Amino acid sequence: MKKTILITTLLVFGLCVNAQKIKQTNGKLAFLKGQTELSVSFEQAPDLKVGKYTQEKYIEVKMDKANDKEAGAGEKWVKSWKADPSKNYYPKFIELINDVLNEEGISVKENNKKAIYEMKVVTTFIEPGYNVGVSRKNASINLEITFFEIDKPDNILATFTILKSPGKMIFGTDFDTGSRIAEAYAKAAKEFGQLLIKKKVF
Fold first, then answer.
1. pTM, whole model, 2 decimals?
2. What is the total count of domains within the chain?
3. Do the strands 107-110 and 37-50 form a parallel or antiparallel pair, or are they unpaired?
4. Helix or strand or coil: residue 51?
5. What is the DSSP letter of 134?
6. Whose CB among 7, 118, 158, 193 lies 3.0–4.6 Å from 147's, allowing a Cys bridge?
7. What is the pLDDT of residues 106-125, one digit of tens each?
8. List of E strands, 51-151
9. 185, 159 in Cβ contact below 8 A?
10. How confident is the model at residue 181 (pLDDT cuts 50, 70, 90)?
11. At 89, which CATH number?
C-alpha cells in the first residue's frame, strides 16, 4: 500500500514538474468574438536560446560533434535542424490547434485571406532534450503569442506566454531531436486552443 502511494505521489510530482504554464500578459480577447477564421505566423526570437547556448553556438557544437563521428554528418545535421521548424514544428502546431478549434467552427491557417486577425507565435527558448535508451530528457519550448489586426500589425491586441511546453513521444520512441521538439509544439497548440475555448472568446 505504501509503495502504491509512493509511486502515485512520484507520478503526480512528475506531471507537475513537466506541466506547461500559459499566461495572458496583455490585452483582452473580446475582438475574437464571432470570428471563424484566424491567420497564424511563426518566428524564432533573434536571441533564441537552445539549451544553455545561443542557437548559433548550439549549431556549431552539434555540427562539430557530428563531424567528429563521421565526415560530412555535421552539415547534414545543420540542414535538418534548419528545415525542421517549417517542415515539422509549425505544421504540428497548426494541426493540433485546429483539432481543438475546428470543433467550435474556427479555422487557423497561415496566410489566411479570410481572417481579420493574426496570431504570431514566436519561439523564445528550446530545450532539445535527449533519448539514449537508458536515459532520457524531454524536450520543451517557450513561446510568446501575440494577436493583432492584420491591417494594423503594430497594434498588439493581446499577448500570451507559454512556458515549458514538454515534448516526448509515446513509448519512448523519440530518439530524433526534431520529433521531440515537434511534440512540444503539439502540446502547446492543443492546450492553448483549449484555453481559448474555455475562455469562450469566440
1. 0.88
2. 1
3. parallel
4. coil
5. S
6. 158
7. 999 999 999 999 999 999 99
8. 53-54, 107-110, 117-127, 130-131, 136-137, 139-149
9. no
10. very high
11. 3.40.50
